[in-house]
Amino acid sequence: MEKIPILKMGDFLLVTVQIDLYDRLALNLEADLVNMINKHQAKGVLIDISAVNIVDSFMGRILSNIAQMSKILDALTVVVGMQPAVAITLIELGLPMTGVRTALNVEKGMELLKRNLILYREEEETTSTDEDDSAE
Amino acid sequence: MAAKITVHQALNKNVKKLLEDWLTQQMQDEGLREDLISNEELRSESDEFLKTFLTAIKDDYLEDTNSSNFDKLNEMLAGISINRARHGFSPRETGYYIFSLKQSIFKTLEKEITDLKKLYTEIMRVNKLIDSLATVTFETFIRGREEVIIRQTNEISDISTPVIQVWDNILALPIIGTLDSSRTQIVMESLLMKIVETESTIAILDISGVPAVDSLVAQHLIKTVSATRLMGAECIISGIRPEIAQTIVHLGIDLSGINTKASLSHALRFAFQTLRLEVRKKTDKTAS
């Protein structure tokens, strides 16, 4: 059976969807991705859908779901490279996908994730120093 | 013997005179637009038309203009009518072209056919034929006009939705005129295409040229902004006039999720900020 590969890149996971997502494939991707996030303690997920030309409401929901699930697991999801036609279709279907972060291409998506990670680390540091202060 | 002459024979015999008469008739009409068509053109056009007309009625069959005999004639007439529509002739001028032929033919028939009863029947037949030809003229004339209108509409919508790259990674889209569904579609498509093409991260939608915003237009704007966001770019709406701001609030439309700026320059400033760019006045070296 076909499977969409999930690549680990440092703190992030990279998913490139090269074929049109059909329902079963999308569901498998959702499950695999959540497991991978948990396994690698990933801080970000980048989904490249630049090769996807056809989209339906189900796929829109799957993407939203993935974003929400990874949020719970403390990872940020960025969807990159959406085709104009796909974007218009999703809007016309009434799925503005407000919970999903987006970027124009993989490069910009990676930048976004990295920036987010730096912010995350800074926050972690300040909270840890706060704890140290209180300990003293 | 003279009484048995057919319409075709009668006309064919006097074809030269008929043409002259027809041309004089056309030129006498004060509606003739000499600026749109020259006399020579009119002459050759009429000459050719008359020849085709005579070929079409060769079998003395005038009743049905849908028959194959008239195919060529109808085609030619349609060509002339469409041509005239495109060149801006009025319907009256176009109609007169064919109606003036009727007059000339009647005159010729009057001379050739002496039997009054026969003359009457033939004139009625010719009358009916020319009337149906005139219908063809009007139909094609109006179709030609409609084509012109459709072309102009398309041109207007193309012209009025330019996507301008104002800076690296910044696009501006000034919208002028009312936003309806079909235009929103064009605006959205061209904007998204341009975003992909230029890899822009910020798009400024300037609506200072939109006369009125109702809930439908606002809906279209929100759609466009959401689509841009899905592509991974940010969208700023600028140029909302006070009265439009009032209507938006009165209509209860929620624009809180959308970045709005007062003018295009403010939007541009905001875009520079987001992209960490800075515009500064050059310090004068001679002064220091």
Can you describe this structure?
The complex is a heterodimer of chains A (136) and B (288). Chain A is an alpha/beta fold and 136 residues long. Chain A is built from four helices and five strands, in the order ββαβαβαβα. Chain A has helices at residues 23-40, 57-72, 84-92, 106-135, and strands spanning 6-9, 12-16, 44-48, 76-80, 101-103. A five-stranded mixed sheet of chain A has the order 1-2-3-4-5, sandwiched between helices. In chain A, helix 2 links the parallel strand 3 (44-48) and strand 4 (76-80). Chain B has helices at residues 7-13, 15-28, 39-56, 71-87, 91-112, 116-159, 181-198, 215-231, 242-250, 264-274, and strands at 164-167, 170-176, 202-209, 234-238, 259-261. The model of chain B has no long low-confidence stretch (mean pLDDT 83). By secondary structure, chain B is of the alpha/beta class. Chain B is built from ten helices and five strands. Chain A binds chain B through residues 79-84, 86-88, 90-92, 96-98, 102-105, 108-109, and chain B through 185, 188-189, 192-193, 195-196, 199-201, 223, 226-233, 257.
Highlighted features:
heterodimer; A: 136 residues; alpha/beta; 5-stranded mixed β-sheet; 4 helices; 54% helix; globular; B: 288 residues; 5 strands; 9% strand; elongated
Summarize the structure.
Chain A is α/β, with parallel strands linked by helices.
Low-confidence stretches of chain B: none
User: Main beta sheet of chain A, described?
Assistant: 5 strands, mixed
Largest interface: A-B, 21 and 20 residues
Approximately how much beta-strand content do the residues of chain A carry?
15-25%
Structural class of chain B: alpha/beta
Mean residue pLDDT of chain A: 86
Helix content of chain B: 55-70%
Q: Please report the distance between the alpha carbons of the first and last residues of chain B.
A: 113 Å
Strand order in the largest sheet of chain A: 1-2-3-4-5
Sheet having the most strands of chain B: 5 strands, mixed
Radius of gyration of chain A: 16 Å
Runs of chain A with pLDDT <50, length 5+?
none
Mean pLDDT of chain B: 83
One letter per element, helices H and strands E, the order of chain A comes to EEHEHEHEH
Oligomeric state of the chains? Answer: heterodimer
The largest beta-sheet of chain B arranges its strands as 1-2-3-4-5
